[in-house]
């Protein structure tokens, strides 16, 4: 305890001196070392496991043990999800359809569903686990989440009715929109600052 | 008293005059001034303790939900800041726009914990009282939702500037640089991204590049000098200056460091931009330079005579360098006056005096930021992106038309 305090203080003092010069040059720059207090309590990953619910899309890292298929998923969906999402996820009182839209992005009417939009199937597991059902999030077991994921994939024609979804099989599914994304490459416009004789703005002059 | 029609009429008249800026110079002589009741009576006594509220005559100044794209539920929903009623650059805390994905949680700060883990030397957990012992920093920054302007790309749908631009607010945010806490946990040299996750019912999460987190991101517990309001993330949120509001995770419970982004629903199926050829642009975090005239704006009415044009400009890349205003539908532009202080990634007010002759016309503003970037028109944006589906990041020049009756309307096209 004592040695830790000494270490912290020496560290803080040195950082404070360094921080002064930095602040003089740029008063808004943060000088993290000068602010260090070391007040966090060390914790081991195992004790964060109940919070560690994220699943990484591309490789499915974080998918838990367990499994489920679309048949089991349908029964669960009818009981826990259809009231908002409609039968067969075709759209209900709280949300539009979660089925279809694959291939619609090259048309003028893009339909966004997990089937058309998610580039990686594990993201569907991740979202259901963290956020659904809306009224009782994080209440589903791993098996239930796999089964519901399997059901939504099946409704979108992306897996068979009896296909068992688990950490390996889910990550192996190739989603139609896998290569549908580009990373931010803006600025993509290069407007000029015209002051005189400019092209008039496109406007819709509304009806009176 | 509350429903006194003559007072209402008077207020309406005052509002119209304020908007049109018509001064009664040389007009008919004003009535003699009676001594107001407030001079002749005892005021309200001071209660032993109180949280001060706006005057009852300001009760119309409110956040409002969308009445264009009406949601089927109000848990994953949003509300807009009344920008036309915001009189300075700081948004009053109770008017900061909202976007929640599963309602507003009620978190007890004594129980709240914030964890840093993943690719760090030592995972750490902090209580609120730990965090509040750190030396704080306070910064003025705007915050804007990537979906601001969502309903008004190619034809007018919303009527007021609250609905067209009100997913935008500005506050003084107080907290700790994220880098301070990350340094204490010891960032692995190979960590390039972090997942930030909320303690709400949606456990809303986003992947954020480490570079930005170390540069200027804050772990925030206060806005405008008081603890965050529940709807703004009480007791703790992330704040990422200049980037879409969606990444400034509210009710922050953890940061997990990794070496690649997660590609969650909120960074693929949502908050992405439709592009030509059926593609989508993702991780488009930065809110590019933008501006809008807030007075006169949609649903207001002006009269011929001098008009003080007022609006806001901002840029996620830096400071506002200049704002130009057109009074003739874009044929000519003149530089507006900026009201100081002009701060980095902060709302900046501009103004321009105009003498409206009564001729129908279209007015608009255009922002130039400190990087030299010029706010594009929707036509410019349409050349490079697809405007169909769920379109985000609308920073197009926004025209208001004025007809011969002086009625101001949304003229986006």
Automatic annotation (TrEMBL), chain B:
<feature type="region of interest" description="Disordered">
    <location>
        <begin position="32"/>
        <end position="54"/>
    </location>
</feature>
<dbReference type="InterPro" id="IPR008335">
    <property type="entry name" value="Mopterin_OxRdtase_euk"/>
</dbReference>
<dbReference type="GO" id="GO:0006790">
    <property type="term" value="P:sulfur compound metabolic process"/>
</dbReference>
<dbReference type="InterPro" id="IPR006311">
    <property type="entry name" value="TAT_signal"/>
</dbReference>
<dbReference type="GO" id="GO:0008482">
    <property type="term" value="F:sulfite oxidase activity"/>
</dbReference>
<dbReference type="GO" id="GO:0030151">
    <property type="term" value="F:molybdenum ion binding"/>
</dbReference>
<keyword id="KW-0560">Oxidoreductase</keyword>
<dbReference type="Pfam" id="PF00174">
    <property type="entry name" value="Oxidored_molyb"/>
</dbReference>
<feature type="domain" description="Oxidoreductase molybdopterin-binding">
    <location>
        <begin position="101"/>
        <end position="261"/>
    </location>
</feature>
<dbReference type="GO" id="GO:0043546">
    <property type="term" value="F:molybdopterin cofactor binding"/>
</dbReference>
<keyword id="KW-0479">Metal-binding</keyword>
<dbReference type="InterPro" id="IPR036374">
    <property type="entry name" value="OxRdtase_Mopterin-bd_sf"/>
</dbReference>
<feature type="domain" description="Moybdenum cofactor oxidoreductase dimerisation">
    <location>
        <begin position="284"/>
        <end position="390"/>
    </location>
</feature>
<protein>
    <submittedName>
        <fullName>Sulfite oxidase, soxC</fullName>
    </submittedName>
</protein>
<dbReference type="InterPro" id="IPR005066">
    <property type="entry name" value="MoCF_OxRdtse_dimer"/>
</dbReference>
<dbReference type="InterPro" id="IPR000572">
    <property type="entry name" value="OxRdtase_Mopterin-bd_dom"/>
</dbReference>
<keyword id="KW-0500">Molybdenum</keyword>
<dbReference type="GO" id="GO:0020037">
    <property type="term" value="F:heme binding"/>
</dbReference>
<dbReference type="Pfam" id="PF03404">
    <property type="entry name" value="Mo-co_dimer"/>
</dbReference>
<dbReference type="InterPro" id="IPR014756">
    <property type="entry name" value="Ig_E-set"/>
</dbReference>
<dbReference type="InterPro" id="IPR030835">
    <property type="entry name" value="Sulfite_DH_SoxC"/>
</dbReference>
